[in-house]
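Risk register update: the risk of archive-format incompatibility is retired. Evidence:
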Amino acid sequence: MFQSLATLRDRMRHAGVVRLYAKVLAPNDNSKNQVFLGSGFTSLNLLPHGDVTTDLSSVSGAVRDRAKAELRFLWLTSEGLSVAPEAKLILYPRYPEVRFSGFLKGCRSAPSAVMTSRDPGRVLILGVTHAGEIIGYASGPGEQIAMEVATGPWGSIGVFLDLSLGSPSEPSAKEVLLERLRRIHTQTWVESMKLGPEGAPKPYAARNAGGYTLEALLGISPNGRAEPDFMGWEVKQYAVSDFRSFRAKSAVTLMTPEPTGGVYRTEGPEAFIRRFGYPDRNGRENRLNFGGIYDCLRTPNHLTGLRMSLSGFDSGTGQVTDMNGAIVLLDSRDTIAASWTFKGLLAHWNRKHAKAAYVPSLYRTPPPEYAFGGRILTCEETDFLLFLKAVERGQVYLDPALKLETPESGEVRIKRRNQFRVSHTVLPTLYHRHETVDLTD
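Archived output:
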């Protein structure tokens, strides 16, 4: 047992924890009833988890699909760390809500007395590490840590209290990011650049290098991983015509996941493009393209014959009815040309978009240079259900850019880019909290 919250924080920090949350437990929050982590899927943004899977379970004699996500969860005790191998998140899309389950099973040093109880005053503390592990600690009623958590001046994120790992005088990750962006804004024009493999910035002359330039200034190495960029924040730049209206010149690319089903998956991208693509419209020989805009409100694309639809989602209630549902592209015979399952999209979305900052930029040449604006849109507490609602309304759409080239050499070359995009003005609807921060204030 730790004697104070400060002592526990130090131990959590020593174990690699970078974010610390607490939940004051209700009587029903126990090993029998599971621990309620909030309505909707917002808690999935905070807790790193594995892929969402479904299996059959029996509830009151009825067999139904149960969605779950595995965790790398360990309990912290005064003796050290103890793995809870059966810990998992259970998703109940029809409510919708997320619960924490299996946290005692198979663990030798779990706090069973606290987590099997229904007593009021219990507190569950969850620390998240850079490696994606979750380290838990349970404090019983009347214990010093439980009382400090219950009476502290904490901010809240859903059902959680946000316990800063530093002292109250230390800036939060958001404050650190905004201060860095303020300094970048005051630099005015900077050379177009990209971080090299060794971590040093190098000139980069590509026309659409605003994102690479901002990442280089923030010290973010380019990567294709679906992970946040800066201290848990995804940072995205968008081009504007001026710093007065801050009107985006183009849509925002939210993510670029590969299809997980349909012809694209079963027969491969080449077969998909040959079947649904079209000759290059600029007359380039030996090239097939697959492009266009696809959303849930449009008629079939005149070049590909495909239309977008949403399966497993009830537009009336705004709820997922089937976790095996998907965003699908269908032909005139309802053949699934490509699909993106909710399970795959949910994990991708939550990892990348839990917290996002959108930074305006200007471009000029020669030489190629960028300036980054002082009005930043910050968005927090997203929920995958908000994403699906925007898809259903036709606001989030697919804007693919695929091509298949078969030069005379006979070597087939395929470019794959399946991007989901949205108008910049729609971004705030994908989050429960957003604000526009003026860095010049």
